[in-house]
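Input chain follows. Return structure tokens only.
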Amino acid sequence: MALTPRSGFSRLDACNRKAKAERLLYAFSSATAAERTGMKGMMLMTAKEYLQQLQKLDVVINQRIHEKDDLRARLLRIGSADYSKERVKTSRSAGAGYEKQIVKIIDLENEIDSLIDKYVDLKHKVIGEIHNINKADHIKLLYKRYVENKMLEVIADEMSYSYQYIKELHRHALQEFSTTYPNLP
């Protein structure tokens, strides 16, 4: 192996160090909020992660509603009977399958109600925080992206800007949000 002129390390060693540095940089940039602790165990979120909470909560609510609908459809299938065959008198166990499913549906409905309440409160809070930043374009962009859940391409069309400019504006809007709210939960 050839040695680099001044370092005494081989080129392979230099490549390995560079690759390791790139992996560390990637690991830090893709670290979750829980992994980026800064203040004695307190979790710090980026502005983007904080604003994305609305989208994540919306997804969870929709999945719970879908789960409830599936359980309800399954319950209706269990309840149907074929009366064309002979009936034989049998005793059912105390905890029939449909009773358990009804309890699950009720629990899911209560959970969905709770999640919707949380979503409405968080949405109101986030909208207020977005409205407290200074630049009107930043307010419009953040509202459209994180409250209305629109893609940057759609926002670019609506605001009559290029996609590249909207990406840059989005970065600046997140920076302004971070400086306005430096201690996000």
